[in-house]
Amino acid sequence: MEAITQLITTAYTAAVHGEVVQAADALDAIGFSVDARQMYGVCCAFAEAGTRAVQLLDPTGFDPAKGEMLALSEVTPGAAAANPQTAWAQRFFVAHANRDPEMTNALYATAIKAGPDQFSESVAALLLVVASLGRAVLESRRTP
Predict the structure, then answer these.
(1) Percent of the chain's residues with pLDDT above 90
(2) DSSP state, residue 78
(3) By C-alpha distance, which of 79, 88, 93 is closest to 118?
């Protein structure tokens, strides 16, 4: 499991820094090393990195323990329909951030049922979604 943790860290760090090939290679290695149950944990680990990034960007933001919830709104009408993998990734991330395991499990099951290609694209989209939040954290620390 330690090797998987290292691959998760490598994939996330590479994605945050825009090293697409390295991120994709790490994601491929993860995919070949885990079963479906473990991949759910990988998705949760990615989503947790995004949750932490949101908390760093806005420390006074939402707090699920107080009943507060994170929400994303569709900026471009129809964007979710045009890119269902990204929509799935955003929904999974939000459900995880809101500590909603029933929803994350349901979303994960939906992604699995979509087939291997769509599933892989959905997991990759999740990595990109949370990496964009990680990049925002880095940018916020560079800008006074």
Answers:
(1) 77
(2) T
(3) 88
90 contacts: CB under 8 Å, gap ≥ 6: 72, 80, 129
DSSP state of 69: -
Q: pLDDT grade, residue 137 (50/70/90)? A: very high
* Closest to 91 (Cα-Cα) out of 75, 100, 65, 37: 100
Confidence of residue 10 (pLDDT cuts 50, 70, 90): very high
> What ranges in 58-115 are assigned the alpha helix state H?
79-82, 84-97, 101-113
pTM > 0.85: yes or no: yes
Distances (CA, A) of 28 to 5, 102, 143: 14, 27, 34
Q: Distance between CA atoms of 104 and 96, rounded to whole angstroms? A: 6
